[in-house]
Each structure stands twice: as C-alpha cells, then as structure tokens.
Amino acid sequence: MPLFLNAKGRVWVFLFYGSKVPASGAWQIQRLGCILEDILKTIALGQMLSLCICGTAITSQYLAEKYKVNAPMLQSFINYCLLFLFYTVMLAFQSGGDNLLCILKRKWWKYILLGLADVEANYLIVRAYQYTTLTSVQLLDCFGIPVLMALSWFILYARYRVIHFIAVAVCLLGVGTMVGADILAGREDNSGSDVLIGDILVLLGASLYAVSNVCEEYVVKKLSRQEFLGMVGLFGTLISGHTAVRDIASIQWDWKIALLFVAFALCMFCLYSFMPLVIKVTSATSVNLGILTADLYSLFFGLFLFGYKFSGLYILSFTIIMLGFILYCSTPTRTAEPAESSVPPITSIGIDNLGLKLEETLQEIHSAAL
C-alpha cells in the first residue's frame, strides 16, 4: 500500500490499488483530490460572503419595514468610516511607496473615480426599490455579470472557455427560478411607482458594481488589498458624508435602530474586508456568481423573521446556482497578459480559479508521485 506525497505535504493513501498503483494513475487521483478540495474551499468562501450580504439585507429590511428608516447612504457611510479608520490609517503609517501620501500623489484621481463608482452603485440599487419591483431588481442586477466578464476580458485580459459561459447561463437560470418562486409565493405585491426609472437605476448600479469589482481584482492582484480598502474607505467616506449628515437628522433614534445600523455596518465591513481575499485566489466573476445565493439566504431567514411563504423552487434555485458555480470553478480561466506591459506582474500568474493553480506545479506533483 504505497504512500504518495503531494506538493502541499499531504499524504494520500490509495487503498483500491493495493501495492500496484500505477504512478500516472496515482498522480491523477492526487490532482483530482486537490482540485476538489480547492473547489470546496472556493464554495465555502463564496457562501461566507453571501451570508455577509444576507446580514445587510436582513438589517436593512428591519429598518425599512419595522422602523420606517430609509437611509442607504448613512448605512454605507458607517461602513466607509470603518474602512477608513482601519485600512486608511494603516496606509498612513506604512513606509516607502505604499505610504498613503505616495499613493495619493500618483493615483488620487483614479481612486476618486473608484470611490464614486462604489458609492453610487450601492445607492442606485437601494434607490431602485422605490420605483420598480423586487423581481426586476433580482433579474436586472444579474446584468452586472456579463458586464464584469466583458471588462475582465479587455482590462484584465481574462480568457474564458465555452464551459464558463455555460456555467454563467446555469447560474442565471437559477436566479430565474428564484424569481418564479417569489411570484408564486406572492412576494411581488408592490409594482413600484415608475418601473422604467427603477429598471434603469438597477442597470446603472449593476454596471458600476462591475466596474468596482474589476478595479478591485486589478488592485488586489497586482498591488495590495490594503491599498484598495484604504482608498475606498477614504474616498467613500468623503463622497457619502454630505448625504449621510442629512440622514442622521431625519431619523428618530433609539437603541434598537442604532443596533441595527451597527449590525449592518459590521456585515458590510466583513464583506469588504473578506472579498479581496477571495478575489485574489479566484476572480471577480466567480465571486459574483457565488454570491447569487445571498438572496436565497435572505429568503430563508425571512421565513422566520418576516413570515414569507416557503416554496420548493427556492431549494431548486439554490441547487441550480451552486451547480453553475461549481461548473465555473472547475475549469481554468487564463490571463493573456500583453508581452510588453508597464503594469506590475500579476501575482496569480494567469490563473484565476483556486483549483486550477495546480497547473502551475503540475510537473512538480508528477515527479513527487513518481
């Protein structure tokens, strides 16, 4: 019963072959096991982000339905303040070219545009709920995924395969199933005051989210996570601050409302802090596919908190989205970096998905197995 040591130092025991395991076969089993392990990690990380988004949705709904508080910019402002206090201050005390002043001297206008895109994306999506229906928001919000893939193709030089487009189509089918479940469950009572304006706001917000996510992937893979979060915290605080001040004066405060604001801000802070870590080892596209389940988690919690009606289509929708997500993560997306480029070298060396970084060390693993 031979033992094979892979590149990560784990010992794999192959019981089915006894002492006659072919070296090539054992190596293939090792490779498959590592890929499956990393895909499971990717799924777990994506669902952790979905739960953070679910927390923001639940707290926002409590504020809107129970306490009649509608202050999306104030909610975002608190999150940007936390990012500022933690990451921007961290940049201020760094030395060398990564110092806050050095970054501002070189790229201040770029990060102003990034902060504006991030702030307005959050605002437009929340604002759209006042004009259009939940169904429209859920469906049109997915417009950000093809926009994100197109931007990744031209800006990040990501190269997709046919299976990736199939996987995205499967995920969008899952979203359609979820919307159908909403309609059957009777959650689509409000038709909105002006559906066309609301739909346009959703499309604009989804596009700005795509811009923000592509910029995030570029910065965290080629520069640093601290730089992205520090700059977003700085300019997000400045851009959203003036509107947030007006929201503070319009709210009848008590400790429960304050606690909900704190819970929302902590969920958003965790989301912003963890998302760059996940994007760095996967890609912005795979992250956006993984967090499609956030609406479903919100619905499941809503069964107990808000009295939603259950539908078996919710389970089917979750299953379809997860199948599409696994399908997307199972195949590598290559980066066709130009031969002559002035940008810093990408840290992932052209591989976006976690499970597919194994291809970089394929020969090393093969040699270890032999």
Automatic annotation (TrEMBL):
Residues passing through the membrane, by range: 77-96, 138-158, 165-184, 196-215, 227-245, 257-275, 287-306, 312-329
Membrane-related topology note: Multi-pass membrane protein
InterPro entries assigned to the protein according to its UniProt record, in alphabetical order: EmrE-like (IPR037185), SLC35_F1/F2/F6 (IPR009262), SLC35F_Transporter (IPR052221)
Domain of life: Eukaryota
A GO MF label: transmembrane transporter activity
Function noted in UniProt: Putative solute transporter.
Protein's name in the database: Solute carrier family 35 member F2
Organism encoding this protein: Canis lupus dingo
